Amino acid sequence: MAAPKDVHVRICNQEIVKFDLEVKALIQDIGDCSGPLSALTELNTKVKEKFQQLRHRIQELEQSAKEQDKESEKQVLLQEVENHKKQMLSNQTSWRRANLTCKIAIDNLEKAELLQGGDLFRQRKTAKESLAQTSSAITESLMGISRMMSQQVQQSEEAMQTLVNSSRTILDANEEFKSMSGTIQLGRKLITKYNRRELTDKLLIFLALALFLATVLYIVKKRLFPFL
């Protein structure tokens, strides 16, 4: 079972990826936005909220990295934090460029509307609808990528748990082999001791038999040859 710290780190990474994709989708919407200015303001408000959530999650991941017991794991997480910060700065740069592009587009459209009147309005509406469809497709694609990455993280966690279980099984088998080795050594000592005891018993039996035969010979000698 994964430790609470590992679960928190995994959740932080998933949330960071999610917010990063949502920020990119909103920046794309801003770049494609052709007005009005209120629509741009609404999109910028959403981007600010997502950046705030993203920044908060990165700070949580950094705090978790500092709380790691192993120095190697701590350095890996701190490197991930640094990469997330660089990505967030890149998104902020893209955000500013998208705003500039959108404002230029809005200004150009407003000037064109003054010159062309109603025809341009209809063209603008059609272009806006097309851009909205494209933006929706891009957003759906990004969310699909987010779901796929979440699944990959889950699969990685399951693979890690399998490796941990396999390691435990190997350690248990090693302990059993050590126990069996001790039992075999004890059996070997007992067999050696038994062999020595058997040799001693044979020697004692031989000596007893020799003594018995000597006694018998002595008695026979006294009975048959008493004068000797």
Automatic annotation (TrEMBL):
PANTHER family: BNIP1-RELATED, VESICLE TRANSPORT PROTEIN SEC20. The keyword Coiled coil applies. This is Vesicle transport protein SEC20. GO terms for molecular function: calcium-induced calcium release activity; SNAP receptor activity. Belongs to the SEC20 family. The chain crosses the membrane at residues 203-220. Keywords: Coiled coil, Endoplasmic reticulum, ER-Golgi transport, Membrane, Transmembrane, Transmembrane helix, Transport. Residues 134-224 form the Sec20 C-terminal domain. GO terms for cellular component: endoplasmic reticulum membrane; mitochondrial outer membrane; nuclear envelope; SNARE complex. Residues 37-87 form a coiled coil. GO terms for biological process: apoptotic process in response to mitochondrial fragmentation; endoplasmic reticulum membrane fusion; retrograde vesicle-mediated transport, Golgi to endoplasmic reticulum. It is found in: Endoplasmic reticulum membrane. Its main location: endoplasmic reticulum.
